[in-house]
Amino acid sequence: MQHRIVVLGAGYAGAIAAGRLAKRLRREDVAITLVNAEPDFVERVRMHQLATGQRLKPRPFAEMFAGTGVEVRIAKVTGVDANRRTVAVTGADGDGELAYDTLVYALGSGWNPQGVPGTAEHAYEIAGRPGALRLRERLARLGAGQTVVVVGGGLTGVEAATEIAEARPDLRVALAARDGLGDWLSPKGREHLRKVFGRLGITVHEHFTVGSVEADRVVAADGTAVPAAVTVWATGFAVHPIAQATTLEVSETGQIVVDGTLRSVSHPDVYAVGDAAMAMGPGNKPLRMSCASGTPSAWQAADAIAARLTGGKLPHVSIRYFNQCVSLGRKDGLIQFVTADDRAVPAALTGRLAALYKELVCKSAAWGVANPTLGMPARRRPVTHKRTAAGSALREPA
Ligand SMILES: Cc1cc2nc3c(=O)[nH]c(=O)nc-3n(C[C@H](O)[C@H](O)[C@H](O)COP(=O)(O)OP(=O)(O)OC[C@H]3O[C@@H](n4cnc5c(N)ncnc54)[C@H](O)[C@@H]3O)c2cc1C
Predict the structure, then answer these.
(1) Counting atoms of ligand 1 from 1, which one is nearest the CA of 75?
(2) Which of 71, 142, 225, 252 sits 20 to 30 Å CA-CA off 390?
(3) Whose CA is nearest to atom 15 of ligand 1?
(4) Residue 46: which CATH number?
(5) Which domain holds residue 92?
(6) Total of domains in the chain
(7) 235 lines ligand 1 (CB under 6 A)
(8) What is the pLDDT of residue 3?
(9) In terms of pTM, does the model score above 0.90?
(10) Whether residue 195 has its Cβ less than 6 Å from ligand 1
(11) Counting atoms of ligand 1 from 1, which one is nearest the CA of 14?
(12) Which ranges carry the FAD/NAD(P)-binding domain (predicted)?
């Protein structure tokens, strides 16, 4: 009887977890199903590129997982019953239910309008493909001299503003940031950011907290208004509400609370990885929603699941930060080196070399997903903790 592992979401974290599980566990012992709403992998880290008209390489899951032993199911997850160990899905063949012995929850995140009035009606977003394509279409219709305001001074906002300004020098691009531009960076990183923003002609509205978005402007909490033919909302991400509707323990942000092995603290058959997980990193700080921590979280969860199923020793994958890789258009970039807990240190790489470095990071992240079972030695051990006849997974001794 095979142990049923269901992985929800084939973004960076879910796809990597599924591939690694296939590499760790014997095919005859496990049935691994990867569920994703869309048939191809979306490189979220390139959504600002998609929005500015660039073409992204298509990466169909059917090709990526062919011959790996992972069954890909294209369907939308509509609910999880963590007590009955079932997942409700809806797809081309209608509604269905998947039963699992171990669940890996990796549904990622989307944009976060933060309840600011007018965002849902008037703002554009680039947290996922539909949003990026909608913005792309809108930008294409903008005439020279019209204004685009990017709201959010974090990594995504900075990348979006510079990408748009570089791709469309005929537009007026502005960034509205709640704090100072690049406040979290080292002096070298900050200086470089200001230089690039100056070169690209991006207006920066610092210490500007947006209170509402209207059809043709954004308005600060103090009433100051900035004209905007298009407003791009990039103030961070929010997880999908599915986990919150379960009996799983979730944080205030709706992320599943997990331990150091990425296992749910309330349901030991459930693991959460990537943006969907509330996991503590170095310095006991929650991991930032990023590929930088999402990828090692997937390695850690897959290795822990494999160890628990095969009676092996629990692994420890170090989840720490090394750098923040920021694209500033296609020709410039900033690699800000950081401490293990993500605080900037003085060293930073800038300019064209940084742009190449960032491109390499994006390419290798996508390569890791596209080649799920390559790049590491297979250590397939027999599963000792199989399903019982009643369909429930045996747990390892406490
Ligand atoms: C423009 C942009 C730039 C970024 N740049 C960087 C960067 O430089 N470095 C970095 O570390 N991070 C960056 N990030 C953040 C990074 O992309 C995310 O943290 C990362 O994608 C999270 O991976 P994930 O696998 O948890 O989720 P996702 O990549 O969001 O994957 C989730 C998957 O689940 C699927 N899914 C969602 N809901 C359902 C459902 N109901 N049913 C079925 N399937 C579903 C989705 O289709 C998707 O395939 C950037 C993000 C954006 C938007």
Answers:
(1) 43
(2) 71
(3) 290
(4) 3.50.50.60
(5) 3-111+237-319
(6) 2
(7) no
(8) 97
(9) yes
(10) no
(11) 25
(12) 4-302
For residue 270 the two structure tokens come to 């459930």
- pLDDT surpassing 50 at residue 384: yes
Residue nearest to atom 37 of ligand 1 (CA): 107
Residue whose pair of structure tokens reads 């294209």 in the numeric block = 74
pLDDT over 90 for what percent of the chain? 90
Ligand 1, residue 89: give the atom nearest the CA: 42
Q: Say how many C-beta atoms besides its own lie within 10 A of residue 61's C-beta.
A: 23
- In DSSP notation, 224-243 reads -EEE-SEEEE-S-EEE-TTG
Find the 207 Cα to ligand 1 centroid distance in Å. Answer: 28
Q: Looking at the structure, tell me whether residues 38 and 68 fall in a common domain.
A: yes
pLDDT of residue 388: 43
Say how many Å lie between the CA of residue 41 and the centre of ligand 1. Answer: 10
- Ligand 1 pocket check: which of 34, 35, 45, 126 to mutate, most ligand atoms within 8 Å of Cβ? 45
Q: pLDDT digit string (tens) for 156-181?
A: 999 999 999 999 999 999 999 999 99
- 40 neighbors 59 (Cβ within 8 angstroms): yes
Say if strands 3-8 and 237-239 run parallel, antiparallel, or are unpaired: unpaired
Lowest mean pLDDT among 161-175, 319-333, 366-380: 366-380
In a domain, 359, yes or no: no
Same domain, 205 and 123: yes
Residue 264 lies in a domain: yes
The band of 380, judged by pLDDT with boundaries at 50, 70 and 90, is confident
Residues 252 and 105 in one domain: yes
Beta bridge partner(s), residue 97: 88
Are 86 and 124 in the same domain? no
Residue 87 beta carbon below 6 angstroms from any ligand 1 atom: no
Within a domain: residue 338? no
In a domain, 259, yes or no: yes
Asked which of 271, 291, 319 is the last residue of a domain, the reply is 319
User: Which protein residue has the closest C-alpha to ligand 1 atom 41?
Assistant: 77
Among residues 208, 233, 258, the one where a domain terminates is 233
